[in-house]
Design a protein that fits this description.
Structural class: alpha/beta
Number of helices: 13
Oligomer: single chain
Distance between the termini: 162 Å
Strand content: 5-15%
Largest sheet: 6 strands, mixed
């Protein structure tokens, strides 16, 4: 019998080579004969049949979605298109459009029953229902706008129709504006002014005092809110530079100006002291009224080119045009008006002076040729002297108020 320590044996009783490499892999891959085999334990989901249930749920979901898509596609249909115009066919039959129109007329007649009023008098009164529904009006509109049918036989209908219900409104308005006279100016002393925003330059020297109330009244009547600039004289000279700025008549400096002092102290023919005082109050209290703070008669350009009148469409200049004008200032004014796209309208206080061929007529002609016409304006010929005398004669005795 071999020694167990020198002849080792494996558990099966086989001899083992002590110098051989241990077969660890063989022990891992092969079970020992005669030992029990332990199987993996199934999960709870597998024991309950979860795999089959999942497959069934997926299949049923797909079938339900397919059924819904088929149902929606087969039951939702677009609304039928309504045809309001059906051309009549040839062959003598009446056009379909006539039949459709007849049907609409019947619908209208059915929709407007008459209301009868019982009366004890000898006659009864039948009145149509004054309340017409919206559907009735719609039917009437469609009926009147329906075109005629077209047929090729003896009973064909060839015609056309037009109609409908339509209305519009139109209105006009005038009133004071804000800014540089944003008003509508239709007529000025009977002459149309092509402008919506107007500025007025007035020669307020001794020979012009009597015209001032009439001119200011006319401006406020047709162009309320317009800017008025007062200047003593009407010349376009070069005595002063371009730094002159117009000022408000409501300020205290106006009472120191040549305009105010001359009007207050002069003995102007045709105006009483009370009338002169009222004129001064008028120009002092009127809004948007300015003056040129200059003692010379040649600075009218400061009024025509003032910053206060830069936004207007036209400038109306009223004067006797008796003071000298220079080519240099004429060009300055013409360039400024052109840059601002403004029209110049001038009105001599006495149109008869233009016919006489004197210096005033020459000044008006020069201004017309070099400024007025190129700007798109015109010369206004209105005898304000006659109108002023008529206005005075209409006043009651003892009434010197300026209306």
């Amino acid at each position: 019998m071999d020694n167990p320590s020198t002849n080792p044996q494996d558990p099966a009783g086989q001899p083992v080579d002590p110098w051989a490499e241990p077969d660890t892999a063989g022990h891992a891959m092969h079970a020992i004969p005669g030992s029990p085999v332990i199987a993996d334990r199934p999960s709870l989901w597998q024991r309950m049949g979860g795999g089959s249930l999942s497959i069934s749920v997926v299949l049923h979901t797909v079938l339900i979605l397919l059924a819904l898509i088929w149902y929606i596609g087969s039951n939702v249909t677009p609304p039928p298109e309504q045809v309001d115009f059906l051309p009549g066919g040839g062959g003598g039959g009446k056009g379909s459009a006539e039949k459709l129109a007849t049907k609409k007329r019947q619908a209208v007649s059915m929709a407007t029953p008459k209301v009868r009023i019982a009366s004890t008098a000898a006659s009864s009164i039948a009145l149509p229902d004054i309340q017409t529904s919206i559907s009735t009006l719609s039917a009437l509109s469609q009926n009147t706008t329906m075109g005629g049918g077209l047929g090729g036989g003896s009973d064909g209908l060839n015609g056309s129709g037009s109609g409908g219900m339509r209305g519009n409104g139109r209105g006009t308005g005038m009133g004071p504006g804000s800014g540089a006279g944003f008003v509508s100016v239709p007529m000025l002393f009977g002459n149309k002014i092509d402008a919506k925003r107007l500025a007025v330059v007035l020669d307020m020297s001794g020979s012009m005092y009597a015209f001032m109330p009439l001119v200011i009244k006319e401006v406020d009547k047709v162009a309320a809110g317009s800017t008025i600039v007062l200047h003593y004289g009407c010349g376009l000279g070069t005595e002063e530079d371009n730094r002159i700025r117009i000022e408000e008549t409501a300020g205290g400096d106006f009472e120191k100006s040549r305009i105010y002092v001359n009007l207050k102290e002069s003995q102007t023919v045709g105006m009483t002291p009370d009338e002169r005082s009222k004129l001064l109050d008028m120009v002092k209290k009127r809004a948007k009224t300015y003056f040129v703070p200059s003692d010379t008669v040649g600075t009218t350009w400061a009024a025509l080119m003032a910053e206060r009148v830069k936004d207007v469409d036209a400038v109306y200049w009223f004067s006797d045009f008796a003071d000298p004008i220079t080519d240099e200032r004429i060009k300055d004014v013409a360039r400024k008006l052109k840059a601002r796209r403004q029209k110049l309208y001038i009105q001599p206080s006495n149109p008869e002076w233009r016919i006489a061929g004197n210096a005033m007529a020459a000044n008006v002609a020069k201004l017309k040729e070099e400024i007025v016409v190129p700007s798109g304006g015109k010369v206004i010929d209105v005898d304000l002297k006659k109108q002023s005398e008529e206005a005075k004669s209409d006043q009651k005795p003892g009434d010197s108020s300026m209306k």
